[in-house]
């Protein structure tokens, strides 16, 4: 009798093991998926064990791009479209950590990859901001598809060898510390759909020299978003921007030109003190005299100038008129005058030839034709001069 009971228990155990495997593991498209609180994902004979402190809900899959993806199975929102999220990079395998590039896929099994959410990568510490040595300094190339709409907190932090980073066109959220600590990053373009740049988003990027804003959706730059970007010398902020939190540019000691294109509806000057964290050598350029006065009321110690947009002259031509030659260009609406330059071959640059006052002063008699000429318009507002770009013949 005891032998029979023992045999039944063994058989029951085997059945439970088989049931668990069939219930929590399946294969598809050459990948093996695992569904459990502590996921093990197997591919091509390799076993990858995710961080045991993480509890994934839904399928996770690791593929050959050194990326771990998780499917969004949210039972509280059954009608929401399914998608995949990047939840980790690499394992502790030394051979893998020698890889220098990561490519995130745009789809997995026909579902889009819409989010990068890697909060921390060190399995021993749960630091709020990851340490540089715990992250991925060897990565020199990171490819993100346009399908990604969310880059969550610290998800790309301390990729310290990346010189260039192309953010996806569909990006909507750039989270806290999302791109902080990128030591080698030199330029970045913020996509048109981003409405808010989170705290520390580009903090401590010491070689960041150029920031471009596409479109006019951005409304808020959070605290220390560009802090300690010491190579940043100038920045042109979009007209859609409504507020900049205090210390957003704290530690940008070489920022000498900031172009503010805010509308009159902006709350920037009524409840923000970020200007006082800028270097005193920074020149803040605004669009109107009223905005200039508003900046001064904040107590900002740097230079404030009115800089209005001025169109460049068109159709710069040289024509014969009687016995002489004439340089002529199209008139520019609201221009207060023009400045004509000729190209100095020896110095390899344009030098000032003559300044003409008045919007209708659009011709100049030439003495010598064997030169290359350029013209630009200017406008004076509240004593400050704004210049157009150059237009050559």
What does this structure look like?
The protein is mainly beta. Among the domains are: 189 residues, Ribonuclease Inhibitor (Leucine-rich repeat, LRR (right-handed beta-alpha superhelix)); 76 residues, Immunoglobulin-like (Sandwich), CATH 2.60.40.10. It contains four helices and 30 strands. Strands 5, 6, 7, 9, 10, 12, 13, 15, 17 and 19 form a ten-stranded mixed beta sheet that branches. The protein starts with a helix and ends with a strand.
Report the β-strand fraction as a percent range.
25-35%
CATH topology of the domain at 118-306: Leucine-rich repeat, LRR (right-handed beta-alpha superhelix)
Instruction: Say how many strands there are.
Output: 30
Helix content: 10-25%
Structural class by helix and strand composition: mainly beta
Major sheet attributes: 10 strands, mixed
Mean pLDDT: 78
Q: Look at the structure and give the CATH class of the domain at 118-306.
A: Alpha Beta
Q: What does the radius of gyration come to?
A: 30 Å
Instruction: Specify the number of helices.
Output: 4
CATH-defined architecture of the domain at 118-306: Alpha-Beta Horseshoe
Name the CATH superfamily classification of the domain at 118-306.
Answer: Ribonuclease Inhibitor
N-to-C span: 106 Å
What characteristic shape results from the CA principal axes?
A: elongated
Which ranges are low-confidence, i.e. pLDDT below 50, for 5 or more consecutive residues? 15-58, 121-128
